[in-house]
Design brief:
InterPro entries: Cupin_2, GPI/OXD, RmlC-like_jellyroll, RmlC_Cupin_sf. With 122 residues, the protein is mainly beta. Helix content is 12%, strand content 42%. Strand 5 and strand 6 form a beta hairpin.
Amino acid sequence: MEIRRLDRANLTPAYGILGERLQPWDALNAPFEGAWCVISGGGESTPHSHHEYEIFIAMAGRSTLVVDGTSHEFIAGDIVQLPPGCTHKVVNDHQEDFEYYGIWWDSDMSDAFLARHHKEKA
């Protein structure tokens, strides 16, 4: 067992927001990647789309999730599934930070996981 602590002092920019990637993590053999994401009050992520499947878990605060031009309230405790190819962004139109955890995967990640998993068992 291993616990990783969020390092708020060393968050890095990506997609117009700050975050900390789950990988690399040598102890973790997983078929997915993830990142802790922080959007400052009044900020928003860069609109984007990609081929991966994605889940966002709202951890703190409130925001607006815009998917393919449609706005949805997204608040702490919510979980959203984003299909591949949708254009999405998170808008924090409040003063306090909004924090969420994003998890994404695709078939290549799953195949690599299975190859590592079978190698570990051999």
